[in-house]
Design goal:
Length: about 475
Amino acid sequence: MTLSAALQTLMRMRCVEAELTMASKPFTPEEARRIVQFLQRPAVFLNMTKDWPALHWTVEHLSTCLTERVRFRIGKRNEDMAPLFETECSFIEATVKEFLSWTTNEGESLVGPFSDYHCKEFWAYADYKYITQLFQDKPAFFQDVRWSDFGFAGRDGRDSTLWIGTQGANTPCHLDSYGCNLVFQIQGRKRWHLFPPDDTPCLYPTRIPYEESSVFSQVSVVHPDLKKFPAFKRARVHTVTLEPGQVLFVPRHWWHYVESVDPLTVSVNSWIEIDMDDEARVGEALTKTIVCALKSAPSLDNDDHWLNPTEDRVSSHDENMQYLNLAVKACMDKRTDDTEGWSLLGDQPRAEAGKRDSSGQLKTPASTFVLPFGPHLIPVILAQKPKCNCPKDTSSFKYNDPSQPEQRSDNEFCQRSGQHAHQEVESPGSSQGAAGMRLSTNDMLEFLVHPDVIAQVTRLIMCRQRELRS
């Protein structure tokens, strides 16, 4: 057999192998993408990644591939009733090999970058690491992640981020302003707590610390303080423990708190852009302009660490206004030039945008498309009751039935989530020192850049722009 014939035979064998592998998957790429297009709640895909080379990306394997130092976030293991934001964490630079050594030296003296942190008292997290930067000198690794199996042709490790952590490592509860999310679990298990977008008032949203595209919750969702955040008792938490080989779909604007369950965890995710991101970018630019303007001003209550470590610097007001105007122009141009265009999520005309719900997913009659829930696609279920630091009378602590309209009393709904920032001050001219409430800058921002307020102002801006163009 000649070399040319041998190569042709090898190519045919690989094609047959690829066809057999594809046939063994529960969904074709077209089916998987259609499922993602119509899912309106979190769900887990099973048996879709058996042939992904990235399944071998364990910490042990990565320690031999990634020789450059990466940034690890360090947090103390505790059960506080307040979220541990990144502004309260420590950071170190270390290689994955040094990280792995630290996790195995429980009883030995500590050396190296982790010497100040005992692994029984602290957790470590190398989170949100762009794979394009980690493997810039090893581009072949990009092909180990195959989002094309979910119908996103050409999407691989170049469009993904890597997360490496120890037991207890967590991401504070937040929602992502852009797109939806696919998460591939590689090593260990992660526990996900998810809340629907409609529960935003129950999560007490805040933009402090500020990070572009992330809206944080003030509630420690696993140890909630219901006296300070009473509306949280109405939140509807959906929980799932993601295991190796599984892929979790997180719809647009679903809140999520994520914690590593096992001693070592590795996962990869990719954010999928959708049409509604155009307007969301305007809202994010508006938010940044307001936050930076107020928090950069000299003030006695602006001495906090308000900028998340993921942000490089505080941009100037002129820079923020320029970014806002560019975002508005880009959104208007795209709507004008792409009226009959196609969206990335589902290849649907932009005319379909009006048929999408608040999560960005397409609305459709049940008879049109039935989601194939079963052994290969499992919906994330509503939890019955989470662990919490409840008041003695816990009879009222329950989650709403999602099929029933939510009822809130004005008194409870209006209880402020930033009560800890209020201070009692004496009223001028009052010898008795009548109690009053003093608003801080952060309190003002809690109102001004609340997601609902920003969404409404963004709509007003876009309406005004359409009037000027017409």
